[in-house]
Amino acid sequence: MGERQRLLLIICLALLVRLYMVFNTTVISNDGVIYIEMAKLLAGGQFATSLTSNYPPLYPTMIWGMHHVIGDWVFAGQAVSVIFSCLLILPLYAMIRRFFNSRVALLAAFFVTLNPHLVRFSTDVITETPYIFLLVTAVWLGWEALANGKTRLLALSGLSCGLAYLIRPEGIGAFVVLGLWIILPNRLQQGFTLPRRAVGIGLMTLLLLAVAFPYMAYIKHETGTWRLSKKKDLTVLLGIRKFNADAVPEKTVPTHSNPGAATEESPNHLGTELQVEPVTATQSPATFMDHLYPKGKAFLKMLALFAETYHPLLVFYAFLGFVLWRRVLRNRRAGIYVLSFALLYGAILYRLLLHASYLDRRHLMPVAVITIAWAAVGMKALAEWISSRSEGWQHRRISPQQVTAALLIITAMVMLPKALKPYRYCKYHQKSVGLWLKNQLDESPVIMAYNLPRVAFYAEGKYVSYRRGSYEALLALARERGVQYLVVDRQSVENQIPGFFGRVENGEDFALVHEEGKLNEKMHDDLLVFQMVANDEI
Predict the structure, then answer these.
(1) What digits encode the pLDDT tens for the residues 54-73?
(2) Is this prediction's pTM over 0.85?
(3) What are the structural domains of the chain?
(4) Radius of gyration of the chain measured on its C-alpha atoms
(5) DSSP count for the chain of H helices, then E strands
């Protein structure tokens, strides 16, 4: 079987695995609710309203476009993620083949195909796969431009960075790293004269701004300052300001049915607009160890989460790969080039964890994909080592190809069960409650809850989020917004609204009409649905 046929087989395997998981992702993410609502606003011609969300516009635009082909909004979002997840294999393969060889590139493509967390991200209504596709494309085109002195490829790399920024603001980081490789003297620029480098970075900047500047200008108009995102303050990541978890303001998330609907998300959710406070000298730790300990703890936490995102077996392969990669690499500077992107994003994510106390596998997955070649190098080296030691085991030597095939089977057996496990089943009760509410009224119900936007989404209703506080404030907000149903979590509502059950016991304000219990011991706590009692019924 030829190289192209093997690559096509891997892409087909990726498609089959992801199509299977599309039908086993039981509930979409909270972010997915916002992306679909933005897409619905775009479909309705409400472009300005869709931008009032804190999320960039390109991914919802893709969902809107796919909805013309697939009539279902959720499947349209999943289709975008699946398509880009399969397309991701192509630039990744081309880049790694250029750095190492075709065998390493095929192994890396196979690992990306079966990575459990990437499979899950690839079948959800979230931005990961189109963002990673554009990021890898930008890194690959940047290398080809520098290594071959092709300014037009730098322009295309800038375009990829700009499109990546319109999906996730941190996509502009690839532009920064690539710009440093162009500006700072290095051996990679041999044959790439200074005038051509100036033209290249000019074209790269021009195309990036052509797609990104309109959104940047909109953010400037809305916030009054030049910043990359409405929801992320760079001063938090740089340590100039510190995250204040006790002061998270309410934000507005548009919906197609209620463009001004206010929602509040958990302080640990990326959609939250963080309120920050300056770091002053009086806040410094008393001793050097007191200052060092939380930073070291955060670093170890990030490494542990990265290993889980990467997959422990691939971490073992990658360790071997980092030890031996110079033996396989065609150009040693290529390894440094790729690692420079990984280190930049790693540093940004470390600052995010240190100052915002939040980090997720979704943030680490781009770094995992960029560095997946080292896992492939490690497996190749392991196969060659086992092959060289096999002569003493039997009369004939086992070839490296045979050992590689055996290792691939073992790897697939380890990774596939988790990759094919039904996703987010523990949240199914939120979907079930939403569908129950949908059947109660002919028109869209007005639903109030705390961090449960999925309930209103599946109910096709209007969502109102309440904040932690007093029962009186909750009741006033419900009456002001015309709330018909209140959905609460039995376990946590008393922490959000102290004395809640004591106040609703008499049924004067809210009447319990439905309870969604656990389906098994792994389900989250019960959801209770209360119907708002009209004033004239009191």
Answers:
(1) 899 999 999 999 999 998 99
(2) yes
(3) 3-243+286-419 (no CATH), 425-537 (3.40.190)
(4) 26
(5) 24, 9
